[in-house]
Fold each of these.
Amino acid sequence: MAPRGEAVNGCPNGRSNCNIFEILEETMRHRVMVCDGAMGTMIQRHILEESDFRGDRFTKHAKSLKGNNDILTMTRPDIIYDIHRQYLEAGADIISTNTFSGTWVAQADYGLEYVVYELNKAAAELACKARDDVMASDGNRRFVCGALGPTNRTLSISPSVEQPELRNITFDELVDAYGEQARGLLDGGVDVLLVETIFDTANARAALYAIQNLFYEEYNPIPIFISGTIVDKSGRTLSGQTAEAFLISVQHSNPMCIGLNCALGAQEMRPFIESIGKNTSTFVICYPNAGLPNAMGGYDETPEIFAKHAYEFAKDGLVNIIGGCCGSTPDHINAVVDAVKSLKPREPPAFRETSTLWLSGLEPRSIGPDVMFVNIGERCNVAGSRKFAKLIIDNNYEEALTIAKMQVENGAQVLDINMDEGMLDGVAAMKKFCNLISSEPEIAKVPLCIDSSKFEVVEAGLKCTQGKCIVNSISLKVGEAEFLKQARTIKHHGAAVVVMAFDEEGQAADRDRKVEICSRSYKLLTETVGFDPRDIIFDPNILTIATGMEEHNNYAVDFIEATSIIKSKLPHCKISGGLSNLSFSFRGMERIREAMHSVFLFYAIKAGMDMGIVNAGNLPLYDDIDKELLRLSENVILNKDPEGTEKLLDFAKLYGKSGKKDEKADLWRSEQVEQRLEYALVKGIDKFITEDVEEARQCSEKYPRPLHIIEGPLMNGMSIVGELFGAGKMFLPQVIKSARVMKKAVAHLIPYMEAEKEASKLACGDDTPYEASNAGVFVIATVKGDVHDIGKNIVAVVLGCNNYKVIDLGVMCSCEKILQSAIENKADFVGLSGLITPSLDEMIHVAKEMERNGIKTPLLIGGATTSKKHTAVKIAPQYKNPVIHVLDASKSVVVCSNLLNDQQRDDYVEDIKDEYEEIRDEYYETLRDRKYLPLNVARSRGFKVDWTVDPPACAPIFLGTKVLNDVPLSAVIPYIDWKPFFDIWQLRGKYPNRSYPKIFNDSDVGEEAKKVFNDGKTMLNKICHSNLLELRGILGFFAANRSASCEDDITLFSDETRSKEICTLYGLRQQAEKATLTDSYSWADELSDEYKNQGDDYNSIMVKVIADRLAEAFAEYLHARVRREFWPYSVEEDLSCEDLLKVKYDGIRPAPGYPTQPDHTEKLTMWQVMQIERQTGISLTESLAMNPAASVCALILAHPKSHYFSVGKIAKDQVDNYAQRKNMKVEEGVHALLMAEEGRRQLRDLREAREVEAEVMKQDPEWVVGESQYFSRRWPHNIMSKTLATEVRPFESHGSRFQELWTYMLIV
């Protein structure tokens, strides 16, 4: 097969002067590129012998060379050239050099270290020759990647179980090895450097460090591609990092493309490549194996199966480059090329939040607006902890690790490591301790803060970590040149940096000096070094106050004010500080110091302080500080009282220096048990929790069931914890202590709750095992990226106590794990929990995947960071089945029981759906800063249907029009939807009595609803028996194609030959892909007037209401006949009238003037094409309302992929374009769109509408057409429905042979 289409901005040859960055970027934005497949698989086909690997040059080499595939570049270049050429001729855009083991580290196994540079240069030249030869034959641009493999050694894992700190290679050795390899590849002419198959991120960081040094010192930069390897379904690399943590760890090298390869097949790799794509704005590459290896080590996926997976990746917008790894061949690549050639590439997301600092250990850590304060654990600091210092000096590193582990367990989100002690070899100690941390996943999961005043110690730490660290610290006190040198080194290591407010003149003490030094440092770092401002953390110096020296009194105020100025003046930077120095003058008086720290943080965090080195576990709650001590502390910190220091000292003297607990501290033990339980939870005191819970349990009159204790005082206490945390008066370590107390309390109650359940079953004579008799199966999990489980655990307990089988998947659960568990356990519900803001995005992802996988299980959303608004706006639209926000654990049982109740479920779900729709409407109505896609971009994102997977509907039984005037009224009565009947009379029941006939049971409107309904039935019977109304309809079917002049429009033809155009139907973004027009109405006005002339207003209105219901019913009746008879695309469909009314069918039935087709002027074309007024007497008013008023206009879209949506607000470029296509003046186009409303009521005052229209036009060129506060206030029906600007759909037919079948229905 010939290679794919023409390259974008192609250059005449591989060594042209074209900018490779621009060429690749434009190509990846234009189409999905394809890279080659496996080199080793192809080499194995040749069944080579030792002589092939030796060639002429190495005949006398001392070691065996068989298996050294890289050396074949020098000994059998013909084979390697041929493999490159086969991949290129199969259609690959990119090939990789045969240098996977091209470092001296790997070649040392064969004794060939000395040929490494030569080998890599020759490999690059050979690949480039193959590229150039194929390019010369077909003219299409190709690219060569210089491959740098992982080596056979690792920086993060010890080769000895007995010595976890041992390593068999150093960072510097790897930098040297990768540097030599990269130099050979660059000199050989590669277009890209590809660091691939990364199983240990520390190794990759060494490779990237070497490459960056080469680019800085010797070579012009070329693009860098990075590809990691997730070794199994755990979603981690061999060295333990998650995909997100890996991404963060290598992002500093500014790769053009990042992704995954090897170890897994495409199916297994999908969730991890999705995760990569969600979290990076770079392009994404993926080249999986051809499935998982079989028992013989081979790969079974055929080219067809492999290409199908590639197609799914590309169709779902996951990749920019797709290819193959182990087991793939040119046949696989050729099939992939065919599969993805017409698909659009992934569009890298533009992240909303630009100021978030991302760090990583084995797991990711974000520091941004959603994170109130980050606690940096301080106890692994030899200068700050005597215990830790003694352990390190005594070489008791194992015990020292327990301190690190305790810090993480107590809530440290970053771990500070400092080895600056006169009796220590700081470099050796830092290296050993960091290596040991790598062997402890519970510690290594958090990022490290490498803390030292000696830069060689800092470097030692950076060389031993695979994650993205913080360096604490550098400053200008060493001079500008050294400062820049250190900063550049840190940047090449990919770390964030703390910059102290020091310069050549010394330490900044006052506010202005702090701001001055930080501003100078920021400019040097961002403009000279190119540091990402998000990776800059300033420490403006927390200095000691209350020393008795007046010049020190304002130090805290200076820090707080400087923090605020720095955050506003220096975009995206962070602020940190060491808290202990603040209160140094009160050393030994721990109660005073802790109060001062708590007060200081309260104000500093408000000013913008992001993180700090602080033992937060010992901080008192701001609200719990003794009121007098609080007042005195605030006076000192805020410098409000000149005598503040003396007064605080006087207070300290009364208190004493012992640091012992206040004698009044145990007074809470005399409170009632409820108050004690709440106090223990808020304070994180677990000493008495078991006995207090038991005391409450013994109060059987007050708490008949153990569950009532959880739902009562324990939940009350946790609610207080949540409020304090949200208000900034508690920190995460304190919350974690509270959670532990809660777990201990619940653990005491669980045996009693289990016994209660068994006793209840026995009393009912039920001896069925619990597992078989549960009320329902509930799978619950804290989503990936989140480790908080307080609320989740409470929900699990509450549901368990109500006889639900709860499958608790724990924390950090991947989407794949959640879905797999839901399917395997046949879950009735899936519950997602999360505390931090990034969890919200993961919940959206889970909802999308549930929809993609065809799961129909209700999805329940809960957790501190969630809300009903976010659930309604962001999550629910991603999943067609019920998505419900659950406020707290006590509500979970009610939600589940409603969903399981067959009698209530539909009404309950409908009630939630309506409520969430109102929330979405309100949310979008308040948006004032929405962005709009240019029209050409919106069109480029048009929805595409794969007709091989979802073929078009069958042909109708006739083309043209057909009048129906013999349909009896009795035929349409079963299709009447009575709910709008009650809405018109403003009778709205409350759940669960909202729908018909349950509205009759409503306590407020039930009786009146029954009366009105009976009157309506009487009127309906009279109309039917006396034939007072007649039904008449007209259908029209026409062959249709997408318009040749504009993809948004549809051209109708007179017959199937499509040679004669009838008209064009014009569409707007966003819209769906298949359509049938229908229109229906009733001549009820004369009958209504008869009653009105008799003074019977009630029956005058009733006639119109019944006529309106009949019109809608006839529309649905004819819709059903169209589906099964006239256009039999659903001939086997077995849906009741009720199912049709509840839209349980494939396809949709929207209407002109409604959100999907908001332009009423399209009715003019409909009336003209089908001669509606001549054949039926139905006319259009000046404002394009149908006359008579009880008329229905709708579009039937047959394809199962069609769904309801809103065009939404549109920008001026689309209005201009739309008006031009319709030969309208722009003002007329604006007016037509302003007439669109969600309902069939015409605008009340056309003149007033035009006045507003004129005002809108004055806002040119930035105005948008759509609802405004003015319109939504004056007319209850929104002028233009709202939707996200990114969800753009075209109003189009797909494929030249697809028949757009439009139907008009009219009722007389």
Amino acid sequence: GKVHKEETCAMWGDYVERAVFDLTGEGLGPDLCGKDFYSREMGPDITTVDSLYEVLSQMGCCGTDQLPSGRVVDGFTACHSDEQEAFGTPCLSDDDFQPTNAWTLECQGMPLDLCMNLGGRASDTGCACEFSADPYGYDKPTLTDPIATCEGAGPYKAKVRMSCMGAYQKYWKMYNPPEELEAYTTEFCSTYPSDSDPSAVCAKQAANWTIGGLATYFAQNSTCCSPDKRKPGKYKCMSTTTTTTPEASVAATKCETGLPSGDMYDVSDCQASYEGDVCEVTCAEKFETETPGTAPAQYSCGAGNAFTGTAPSCVEIVCDASTIAGLADFNYVHDCAEVTVDGTCSVKCPDNYEFAEGDSDAIYYTCDLDKSFRGWKLPECRKQSCKSETLPTGAGVDLEGCLGTEFGATCELVCKAGYSGEPTTLTCSEDTLKFVGQAPTCEMEPCPVEAWMTEATVTHTCDDIYMDQVCSTFCKKGYEGSTVSATCTLDGDAPSFVADVPTTQCQGMECKRNVPFGVGIDATNCAGKVTTDTCDVMCQKGYESPTGQVTATCQDTQAFTSVNIFCSAKTCGDVTSVYGFAATDGVTTTCSGKKFKQSCSAYCAQGYAMTGTMKSLLCDDDEANAGFVGLPEGTTFAAPTCTAKPCIYGKPTKLGISHDCEGATTGTTCTAGAADGFTITSGAAVTLECRASGVLVITDPAGLPTVAPQPCTVPTYPTGVDAGACTGKTTGQTCWVYCASGYSGTPGLWELTCGAGQAFTGDDGVSCAPTRRLEETAKQPSLRRLSTCDSTLTNLEGTGLANDCSGKAAGDACAVYCADGYDIEGSAVLYFCDSVSNAFETSSSPALPTCTPAVCAYDLPTGAGVTHDCADKGTGSTCTATCGDGFALAADETDQVFTCGANGAFTGTNPVCEPTACTVPSLDAAFNTSGCVDKFSGETCAIECTEGYDGDAELAECKSDGSFSFSSPVCTPRLCDVGLPAASAEFVVDASCSSTTMGGNCSVSCAQGFTGSAETFTCMASGAFEGVAPACTPAVCPNLPAATGFVKHDCVGDLTLGETCRKWCGAGSSGQGTQLTCSLDGDSVGWTGKEPDCKPLKCDSGLPVSKIYSQESITACSDVEYGNSCNVTCATGYEGAATVLTCGLDRGLAGDRPDCTPIVCPPLEASGVTGCESVEFGSSCVQECAGVGFTKVSSGVKTMECTAVGDTVALVGTPVECVAQVCTTGAPPSRFPYTHDCVGKGYSQTCTVKCAGGMIGGPSTYTCQLDQSFSGTLPECSSSCGDGCTAYLMITGSIALTVDSDVLLTSAEAPAALAAALASMLDGVTADMIEMNITSGGERRLSTARRLATVTVDYAIKIEADAAVEALELNPSAIMALDTTELATAINTALSAASIAVLVSDISLTQPVMKVDSVTVPVPPSPSPDPA
């Protein structure tokens, strides 16, 4: 049930929505009207006006009219006021503010030009401006208060014509009630048939018109008429004549003669006087009796239809000039002394003065009946000013200071703002009202160039820029930014530039040409550098230059200055100084002297064993580790793990030498000296070094010391022990002690060893006890001494055997044991020299010990690469020493034989072995095997990727067969990634350069728009390109043709690609400059950019602005551009030769102005009118009637203005209406057979009298004379019928009767009665001359109780022509002049006499038609004609 707010107003008619409320209550604050209402759900549906009022009532808002005295709907508690604007009010009708029709505002006396400015037209009183009824219309002036409009424009009186409703709408709400509204209703309600005062009646009804929305209803149904004789609504205001029905016919005869004649008399009271009546003759309007207060003259209607009486003495009323307010306050010039009613006079200022207000040269007054003058309030007079067109002009001259200068005064001409020059003084001449003096010489002042225009990055065209010109700032070469336009305007009185200047006008352009490049050159600081910026060019990481860093400057050519810097790869430090890489760490490398980005290897040196793999390193200019990093990239930098190998050659094995060299490893030392039990006989202990070759080398050139074994002292044993075999034994030797003969012990034999302490060991438990044998021996001493067993010694000898039996006597014991150099198996054998057999005998079994050669452990063959077969060789054996795998005998060397001696040491000479040399592997160029040169068996080397190739190195080992054992590394050609100039606007880098590897080539050429030969760059082993950048020269844009017209430019002088030039607007023009860029256009270069829109400046001084010049000239010259001309012609109403003005650089129009003088309007050709002769254009005049014989019938002052009409001039205005005094006597008869046009003819006018139709006779002329009588002779008229016929005058017509019964249609007597009634009204006409025919009827309802009928009666009057000529004054005009009331009375009388019960209440006549007809009279037949 809620209605959208925009539809609420529209559904009840043409209303404009003013209410702004939201029926949902969303978003409304507590201060708005209707807050209580919105806090709950909407109640009634808004479908009717009343329901809307109910809503508004609950809201507590004003009624719809918003008026302080307007109606308030029940419940409306808050009305609109200036202090509080009620929310939700109101929906108002447009009719509440605007007339329903266009209305006219008249401003009396308003000059034509001001009137035209208001969109008006000249009227008889001044200016009539028509305003639109449409409140939103734009075709006519906006509706304003008419009084304010006129009075605001000058001393002009407002007169408003509008409807009564319009008056209400316009005035009622302003004045409540307005006097104007009462005046309108009073004027047009005066005919209302009521005894009440019409003003009061209308005022009372108008009071109802204040009821808001019901105002229209009450106004439409009001009985008060509006000024246009129409009610505001649909009803016309009719005349209210009351019709009465007299009791009988009027029989009396009306008086027609005897009254005084002349305009000075008012005889209206006597117009309907009949015999016996008395009436009054007074002085007519505009006249008065000579003696004021004289009573009206009495006239009596007597016999003979004539009046008798004495005429009053009437004279014209003359107005008193003193009633013109202010006339005596100044020496005005006027002609108001003897002015009669409706006469006019003018009041003017004296010579060289003019009215202070308005443009009129005269104020006109009209003489009113009350003897006072009616007209404008008289303005004051002021001195006239010199004519503006006489001001001297010139470029930049400000005329404002001299406009309006009064005669006799001086003024100063100065230069306009924006111009400079000394002022001059002019004098306004009293005689000519022209200025005397010279115009100043004014020169245009340029806008001073401002600081922001002269910034280092900016160039401008702002020198010598004058008012309204536009200049531009541009970015200098090498800078970019938006073009800024500055307009030279006035800042106060001084010219200054106005522009929207950005914070930064121009920014340097990025340098992209001649960017420093080359191997190892770091120009990253130059990226993004713009004009004038500098950047440090240095060597990249890993490179160095003897000159250090250098500076490049970004030039305005967008190219860097050339720099002289050469960067060479840095050499990495000594990696052996890094922990883990020292030689003592067993590491060897190929890293010595490596330069940036060169790789090398670290592996274990000869004499060391490697755990894991070798290490690949890269010289990377790292801050740590001597500049090296691990490879592959990202690998942790670390040394290989190397373990020293033990030396296997050169250990001292010489007898008597001891050492600590077991386990000695590469790089370590050991010592050798006399072993325990030996004494150095020469030399000293020595130090041995474990060399990488695995050979222990004695550092002392003298070699090992000479040692001798120490002798052991034979121990002293008890008797019975034989230790003789131990005599002379030295360290390491063994001997046997045993029980001597006659002694025994267990086991009886003991082996002793000469130890290191010069003492024997092994003699623990030696003990021998005497035996019986000893006793026997003792008994036989001779036997014992005499016999020996030497002869059997041979039985005791053998290889490896030794004994101490020699010289033994019988009975002696001796031992057989192993000789030095032999090892005994078991024990020695004890022998006795048997005295019997004189042979050595033993009881042991076996009889001899088993002796095996002792293995030699000393002085084995030794030396690098020496191998032998001496292992396990025993005493007396020999072995051979030669060279092992990987070694070969040196020159002149042979295998050597070593013999194992009894002392356990070999004797022989060590052979000299040389290691076998490995042949360097034959690999392709990608592999570097230089580290494998001169390698011998057992040695290792690194096979690396050749410089220019990338890959991990592999370790190769020299085998004994002279070949290397290795896995070939994977080496790929290195991709070059530095050393090329960057692709830019200048260079084109071939696409193949991105994949060019070591040894390959690619080209760098000049980019499009540049000329120069391409250059080849070679990818070097270092991974950098080497080559020279091509010398690229930017293409030159063609010079633009020389500037013509307003557009100027500086696009010449071998400007190259990327450079800019300017175009700007030159002198005499204005427009935003543009910047052109030398750009690529296909395969060539050309200029791109917009053309400036240069518009020529218009001249703004020296313009012809006076009204004496034609509007076309003023318009044309106000739009003249520099270098052009305009024609100056005189305005319509002025005459003079045309001239030409030319617009110069100084913005002034130069040339002579035409000498334009006003044209005199031709006088109006109007009879009886005077007063507007020789009126110049622009002047006005008042017309009057020309004295005797003419009467002024128009009211008010009739002002004529000499103004332009088309291409000429004419007097324009509402002409005075002067009517010649009408002739009242001597007029030709207005009856058959004459027709004439003399009715209403006045003095000096003529009229023509003719014979009526059907009659013949020439016309004659009548003249109206000064005494108001016609003079002239009637024409002789005769019938044109001829012999044998009769001419008749026929008048036909119809009468419409309003009757109360339709009996006339059926009554046979009715036509005769109607003919009798009409005949009674026409002189010389009888009833038998009239034929009546009742032709139609109708009916209309008056009320439920009464009906009226309408009957049409056609009549025809037929009179013989001759009789009509002689006796009848009859014509259609005479019939139409019949008094219809009297005719109705005559008809009612005739019908009553014929006993026809019909009452005629209204009559209307149609215009009769008169013609002459003829009837042929029969004549006797004539004799037959003679056939001849």
